[in-house]
Amino acid sequence: MLNISGFKDSGLRICKEAGIKKIFSAILNLQSAIFNAVDMIFRSHVMKMMPKLKFPAAAAVFAVLVFFGGNFSELPAQPDSRAGMSRSMEQAIRLYHEGQDNEAMDRFMDILVKGSPSEKSMANEYISRITLRMNTGIQTFRDQGTEGGVMKDVEGVRRVPVRSQAAAGEDLVPSEEEAAVREAPETRQARVAEKISERIVAMRRTLLLELGKSDAVKIYMGEVLPRAVTINPQRFFVNETVFKPNASAALSSLAGLIFTLGKANVLILPEGAVEGDVKIKNIRQAIALNSYLISRGISQARLDVNLTGADIRFPKELTNISGLILLFNYDVVPRLKDLDDAQARGPKVSLGVYPTAISVQKNEGALVEFSVFESPAGKPTWKFEIFSVQPDNTLLSLQKLDGYGPQYNQSYWNGRKNFFGVPYSSGKYMVSVTATDMEGRETNLRRFLVIKAGKEEEPEREAKKSPAAAVAAKAAGGRQLPPKKVKPALKKAGTTGVRAAKTVKGRKKAAEKLSAAAVLKEAPPASAEENASQPEKGGQAEDGAQESRTEFSGQVSYKIYFREETAIVTPNSEKKLAQVAETMNYYPMAKIRLIGYAYSGEANSEAMAQNRVNYVVARFTKKYMIGKDRMDISTQISDTPKSIVEIKMLGKE
């Protein structure tokens, strides 16, 4: 006999974890209805035949009905509680999948207080997902000390811990000390690593001393590194989610301490989690602290919130379990795979800088941390850049580092050339990380860092421009703001400097032009020579309208994405082709360069690159009626996965 009831129980247990309990229950209910209908038809038919049957046969039929009828009727009689999930949990999960995060958060918090142990664990997991997905709008403090200041031109920046290509235009005027260091690269590398370690240890020691002065924070040290921190919520919060104004310094020091711990995982436990007495207010405060750390740029790959305190191993150094608890684990690898990011426009990224203002004269430095997550759309391509903000508010690209796939990176920058060299000018610098998925969706984050002016530097800043800044400005060829109708410098042929981006008009405008400025780093030398005269033409504009018609020249680049190992363009990139065509119709004299890329690991990579660029050419000529004589076509094979066609605007011939 088939035990349908047992099949139902085991199926529900399996499907509950897979999140399809409702579907399975509906199938079972339909199955039960069919069995009941068959049972009724069979019984009515047999009852009509009963008078015609002899007694032994009728008795046998009746026994069969009792036997099978009991099993059929048993199905709908099973209570729904066997599923092990309350109605509140079902509603909370439904709200979560519908994107109603605030309502779902409230229900999950209520379950954490009143639910069963198994439901508390599930609610904790969902609350963590909601927190990361919506990156809550809870009030937090902004980074301090990054709002003012201007930037002098610099030649290039090399972030020591990261192996990257040197910035174009770097080492134009090398110092004697740098030349001596380069003679022994292995010795120099070891020396740099030693100095960086010493600086980070000193920074951590200072932060520990600062936090130790506060009665609201207690630190529990291991042999060398901290193992846990407890904070008194009453000293940090005005109410459930708003920090007190005087807590800003302690919060900043706490974030700085976490930056100095490298890849260490940080687990946040709300007040009362250890005793099993968690209130909704405690949960909100733990989430608020987590959101603050995220807002400072600490990667979500190493931040966790456990709202129940279950399955936690506490370090022996932790002797007090009152208040909010932060546990540090140095053995956990950062999680760089985002499994639940359907609402995001592009790959998840993080970028943080601590501190946000440094003094070169005092040998201070900043930790720069960024991470790129693998999204459900696949492994992203990413690009990290450093810019200087010029006196005329243009962005000068100093360095670029790019790669493919998930990435976590932390480095130390001390505001000096090649770490031991001459210091850079005081002013504002910008770091940026950009990630793009296989569908062409892009995410970008930016942070600012200020180098404080020294006492002896103030008169020089007003008196004259430094030689290094003059060289970089000539290479950049950047434009000034519209009120200053100054003709930009002509870029000499053969110069390897990086061209500056278009004038930054507010933070929003900078975000729109950042990507356009960055792509010039990848251009071959021929591009720089062919476009050497373009900035001069653009600088002759007499009004804003005419300047807007030439501003793209040498500045704009589009990337058309194709599916891996195919010449099939993605839907978003198809729309981007229409935008490029519209732009070309607006600039009838403009030409474009098309570069078809293919990965060296692809089958027939040369043919694939050619097919991709041919597809773009065909779309322009047949659909948008753009002449082929306006296109410069080439292909390139990449050593990293790259299935795109890059379109660069060349301006007038």
SSE class:
alpha+beta
Strand order of the largest sheet: 1-2-5-3-4
Average per-residue pLDDT, rounded, comes to: 71
Shape: flat
Using the 3D structure, state the CATH architecture of the domain at 207-329: 2-Layer Sandwich
Oligomeric status: single chain
Separation of termini?
84 Å
CATH class designation of the domain at 207-329: Alpha Beta
Q: Which fold name is given in CATH as the topology of the domain at 207-329?
A: 60s Ribosomal Protein L30, Chain: A
Number of strands: 17
Query: Uncertain segments of ≥5 residues (pLDDT<50)?
Result: 1-8, 14-19, 64-82, 136-176, 468-554
Question: Could you state the CATH homologous superfamily of the domain at 207-329?
Answer: OmpA-like domain
Sheet-strand content, in percent, reads 15-25%
User: How many strands, which pairing sense, and closed or not: the largest β-sheet?
Assistant: 5 strands, mixed
Rg over alpha carbons: 32 Å
Alpha plus pi helix count: 19
Helix percentage range: 25-40%
